[in-house]
Amino acid sequence: MNHSATYFDHNATTALDSRVLQAMLPFLSKQPGNATSRHSYGRAARQAVDQARAQVAEAVGAHPSQIIFTASGTEANNLAIQGMVESNSQILVSAIEHPAVTRPALTMRQRGNSVASIAVDASGKLIDSSLQNLLSQPTSLVSVMLANNETGVIQNIAEIGEMVRSQGAYLHTDAVQALGKIAVDFSALNVHAMSLSSHKIKGPQGAGALVLDKRVDIRPLLYGGGQEKGLRSGTENVAAIVGFGQACELIKQELSEQALIVTQLRVQLEAGLKKLGATIFGDQSERLPNTSFFAFNEIDGETLVVALDRKGFAVASGSACSSDSTEPSHVLLAMGIARDLARGAIRISLGGKNTATQIEVFLTVLENELLRLKRLSAIAI
Amino acid sequence: MAYSEKVLDHYENPRNVGSMDKSDPHVGTGMVGAPACGDVMKLQIKVGDDGIIQDAKFKTYGCGSAIASSSLVTEWIKGKTLDQVMEIKNSDIAEELALPPVKIHCSVLAEDAIRAAVADLKAKQSSAKVAA
Amino acid sequence: MSVKTPIYLDYSATTPVDKRVAEKMIPYLTEHFGNPASRSHAFGWTAEEAVENAREEVAKLVNADPREIVWTSGATESNNLAIKGAAHFYSGKGKHIVTMQTEHKAVIDPVRELERVGFESTFLSPEPNGLLDIEKFRAALRPDTVLASVMLVNNEIGVIQDIVAIGNICREQGIIFHVDAAQATGKVAIDLEQLPVDLMSFSAHKTYGPKGIGALYVRRKPRIRIEAQMHGGGHERGMRSGTLATHQIVGMGEAFRIAREEMALENVRIRRLRDKLLSGLQEIEEVYVNGDLDQRVPHNLNISFNFVEGESLIMAVKDIAVSSGSACTSASLEPSYVLRALGRSDELAHSSIRFSIGRFTTEEEIDFTVALMKDKIGKLRELSPLWEMYQDGIDLNSVQWAAH
Q: Which of A286, C237, C243, C341 registers the highest number of CB atoms within 10 A of its CB?
């Protein structure tokens, strides 16, 4: 297998931190405990889960009792959307949500709900008046992501929270991409529910969480053994939960340092991209420090991504979760970007281990590939 | 379920386990609880002519707290008069053993067992008087 | 004694991850960390390939087509997806569901949830041996019955239901048949090419794989449809969205490969241990095996010890890690609903212990356990007024208990 040498796709998934692995190992191999069992093996598993719960809570300014562990960020989103919506009411989601929010919202139509989309402007920010207008209809749930997975644009969730609360609706935010990249504080965000994912923060795949204001009326998605206070049945995935907790612990220690590294790298990257004539999406807004979403005129994104992969750079075209489709990014279309340009979009999402040299080499390779692709398309014409 | 050290001690080393002859006129037997409820306590006291409890024995079908409550009670009541043991309150037992709220009923049962044993003895003695 | 305590005899609650499984998983936590849905680079492709290899291993253990295997986060999710997913999809045909009282909560509770949204259900009681009477099952079916769910191996008492007979009836009547096989993999042979089963739930962590991963078998011929319960990126052909945990999937694949290759021999060994445990425990008076002994996996022995109380029994046997009732309900003090469904009294249900034996159980551990049980049951009975009455020949049922 010819692995790409340089990983620029940290918004898709991150490599597990070795310290996280160390924390997980005892639960991957030796410890057989089911956290529901009452014997010492079970109690050890329960303690490990409780410790992780405290770690996750602390990393996001929540109380441990507000953390409901799930198997993924997608599941946390599904739990929030399917669980918090009242029947026969309106659901509002922003036009740039991840499918893990949009799709569950759309399925609620079958249960008599209506779904409307809140518009964003060209910079990727939510248009307040669009939300305000939509809220004039009786609404039970609004879902707006904290930071977009493609552009990295950060929404002003606390302000949105004011508007939503004043209409008596619940506000959910998908903070999966924001966690580990910027400070995330559940109470300061003024939301009722917030989704998190472990594998985006150097934790393992297989764990996520919904942080939930306990006053919220919510129905579970999975029924059974009654774990997670009955809100999420199923044997706790102890190893993954422990890893998630440890990854949150690391965020607490290292967030500002990591953010500084990727901020500097992105300045270097985007200076180079602009020189090559790239359009950078959302760069007028406050963004995640690690994310750069851009396109070149008349260059097909998919082709460029494959070419870059051959040269040893793992980047993304659109989000990984929707890369089955060849449709241009719905995020860019919502921002009013022309389809042709949107089709060329490439996302680089940096991590703390990336280096200035990697950026430098990348920019050189990119320049060469752009020239080559332009020649090819010139021949084709 | 977390048990206090004292409960564990009584559970591991129960005091005064056993039975006495039920038909002995000096022996009072109290049996309280029901198997379906998960606890049955049998408490027996042997009272001398001076009205002082000389010996106490118990058997308990129940959880650790129930066993500990009855074991503790046998220690407490020895050497006391019937009137004195009637003063023992379930709250004293619960406090001594640091029982959690869900286990308070065990101490209630132990108090009931004392009362039942005393009542049995008194009934025996009065019927003996009648017979005499 | 050379054994290390507490001895783990709770393999039906969860199993330790087999070393070989852990070794196979770790590279997918470290160097091959890609998101299998990333189609644009080799990190994603490596992950995707590993996921597909694992899917094949899972399919092979149960003789299914890999395309019939849908990954989930565990058997609870598989059961929820199968039951709610099939009931909703086929609700046009009818809204009646048939299942058993002794099913796992992860089957019972989704059915209860369906009742809240307009379905009706019949919970059949088992015979005293835990098995389902096929004629009772047939009689429970109605023209509007759309789904039946019966587990293959019971988690508490280990009995094996006759899913061939049940499935054949479902086939005749055009009823979707779901089977919870979380406790069955690696213990009984499963051939889905032959079995008249439409949907089957699997778990990795009951078969020496990791927690947090399971699968649902969804038959292709004839094609069974389900309504997705988790929506998003459209993973698993739209049936189940959410980023897949590659290392966990790899672990499940490896665990199921090992099960396929080793189950025949392993089960012989485990049966021998179980028989030894059983004959040792049967030397104690007044013990009752719960559930049929023949139609049963050798891994499970569920025994009630008469005249001792359940909680004190658990306290007494802390040198062995066992369950009293199911692990998933043991946070509450309710007697096991499974044992009650068999007609056991509350007392016997309370004083039951599930010993579940597994891959790493040794003969010394069984010897230790037998000796321990004899000693502790003896001591508790010494303390028990009920035992004393029994020995005095008093019929406990004739006693007027002063209920409090």
A: C243
Residues of A in contact with C350 (CB under 8 A): none
Catalytic annotation, pick one of A122, A271, A321, A338: A321
Mean pLDDT of C307-313: 89
Which chain C residue is nearest to residue A326, measuring alpha carbons? C39
Subunits that touch chain A (at least 3 Cβ pairs < 8 angstroms)?
C
Span A325-334, average pLDDT = 86
Neighbours of C120 (CB within 10 A): 14
Among residues 84-113 of chain C, which lie with CB inside 8 Å of chain A? 104-107, 109-110, 112-113
What's the pLDDT tens digit per position in C263-299?
999 999 999 999 999 999 999 999 999 999 999 999 9
What pTM does this model have? 0.91
Q: Give the residue numbers spanning the domain of A92.
A: 18-250
Q: What's the average model confidence in pLDDT over A194-217? A: 95
Nearest CA in chain C to A303: C40
CA trace torsion C137, C139, C140, C142 (10° rounding) = 130
One domain for residues A209 and A337: no
Selected catalytic residue, list B37, B52, B102, B123: B37
C4 touches chain A (CB under 8 A): no
Which backbone phi and psi does C93 adopt, to 5 degrees?
Answer: -85, -20
Determine, yes or no, domain membership for A230.
yes
Cβ atoms of residues C204 and C255 within 8 Å: yes
CB contact under 8 Å between B19 and C307, yes or no, is no
Is C170 a known active-site residue? no
pLDDT bracket for residue C330 (50, 70, 90): very low
Query: In Å, how far from its chain's centre is CA A260?
Result: 20
Q: Give dist(CA C375, CA C207) in Å, integer.
A: 32
Q: What is the pLDDT of residue A324?
A: 53
What is the b/e burial string over C183-213, where b = at least 16 CB atoms within 10 angstroms of the residue's CB? bbbbbbebebeebbbbbbbbbbbbbbbbbbb
Is residue A296 domain-resident? yes
Name the domain boundary from A198, A226, A250: A250
Please give the residue of chain B at the shortest CA–CA distance from C376. Answer: B12
CA distances to C15, C65, C259, C335 from C183, rounded to whole Å, are 11, 21, 13, 21
Distance CA C253, CA C257 (A): 6
For an interface test with C, the pick among A10, A17, A34, A303 (most C C-beta atoms closer than 10 Å) comes out as A34
pLDDT in tens, C151-187: 999 999 999 999 999 999 999 999 999 999 999 999 9
Here the tokens at position A53 are 């719960």
Q: CB-based contacts of B74: which residues, under 8 Å, 6+ apart?
A: B15, B16, B43, B56, B57, B58
Q: Which of B27, B72, B106, B118 is catalytic?
A: B106
Cβ-Cβ pairs closer than 8 A, B with C, add up to 76
Catalytic residue check, B63: no
Name the helix (H) or strand (E) containing C176: strand C176-180
Any idea what the CATH number is for the domain that residue A76 is in?
Answer: 3.40.640.10
Are A232 and A68 in contact by the 8 Å Cβ rule? The answer is yes
Contact A14, C33 (CB under 8 A): yes
Q: Mean pLDDT lowest for which of A1-15, A187-201, B88-102, C93-107?
A: A1-15
Give the single-character DSSP code of C101.
Answer: T
A1 is a domain residue: no
The pair of three-digit structure tokens given for residue A356, joined into one six-digit string: 């200035």
